[in-house]
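[agent] plan:
  1. take the single chain provided in the ticket
  2. run structure prediction with default settings
  3. attach structure tokens to the ticket
  4. add a short note for the reviewer (M.T.)
[agent] executing step 1
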Amino acid sequence: MALSAIEIYKLLPQTNCRDCGFPTCLAFAMQLAQKKTSLDKCPTASEEAKAALEGSSAPPINLVTIGAGERALKIGNETAMFRHEDAFHHPCGLAVTVPSDLDAAQLAKRAADLSALQFDRVGQSTGVDLLALQHVPGSDLAAAAREVAANGSLPIVLMTDDPVAMAAAAAAIADKRPLLYAATSANLDDMAAIAKQHNLPLAVRSDGVANLADLAQRASEAGVTEIVLDSGARTPAEMLADLTAIRRAALLKKNRQVGHPTIVVAMGDSPLSKVVNASVAIAKYAGIVVVDFDDPALLLPLVTARLNIYTDPEKPIQVQAGIYEVGTPTEDSPVLVTTNFSLTYFTVEGDVSASKVPAWILVVDTKGTSVLTAWAAEDFTAETISKALATSGIADKVKHRTVILPGGVAVLSGKLEDQSGWTVVVGPRESAGIPAFLKALPVPA
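[agent] step 2 finished; step 3 output follows
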């Protein structure tokens, strides 16, 4: 159980020395209780205090790392049931299955193609995170594992219930830190021994939540340090119920036996139902979602949903402030000004591009907020826009001194002209009106 601030305070030296960076030991204890700092900040903490706080300060959901190198996937270590309580810290991993009975050339191509698959969404690049190599009886899982590891850069999930096949495949690519899927009540001892031997993460799978904690406990007692849970749920209702129950037990009831990230195999009768089922698991609360399709048109809604859910609500997605070109603008091209909220910028950029009129977009740093939000917060004002016009270098790129202001903040036009010396033209209130607006602008003489 987590200790309260008062319980932590009683374990501290209570000298108020401020070496931890806080004015009092009580203030430090309150930050420790909220997991906003760590005990190592206190240079005089006793060994007794460290021992007592070690279990309390451990995250309720253990961190699991799959893969090695730059593309290693980290899941778990979450602290909140709902995003408004705290950000979700480790985005759900998306895994695509590849059967092990493909020939070497096919395996190499699938591994390379999935590793290269990327989607650009509001300035962020995202894609598939894992390759799930599914054992087909009669095929050589170890040989297939070596092939995909050699030709792809994604972390690998080895999927088989056969301990013999798993032992060979795990040994073949142990340096790649694959996730072993899955240990069941029938094979847990063998699978746990393989995971322990190579220090690899292990997924345990049961038929329902009831036996999952026991399987995880057995795996832990066998020496497995990184565990992933699969309740066996495959329908949306079952997944939602099981994943929520596991999350609640770990976070609210502090049940260490289920304090591990989860994995779901999303199934369905049609491509659409598979996408829907996977979306449910991404939303609540899968650590990994495995799908059996690689069609980009089907994967795109999943990576988009994940991006939306795992965006920190306190840190809006934003682009860098500065000057952006649309088309091939010249010194006569129009200059539009907007904020650095990604959704705002890319909407404006898309509509300017649709107009076929080459233009400059001046992006003002508004801490990642939209036009009206930034105006209300006094981050998008005559002063901030004037400063951007003066310091960005846009004056060196155009021979005119006319800037197009979003129609929603037309009230700024007069003051902006006075402060900047630029002529202000009020543009459309909605971005969708930009194409017609730009096409109607007079052609420079």
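[agent] step 4 note for reviewer: The chain has three domains: 5-57, 64-309, 322-439.
[agent] ticket updated
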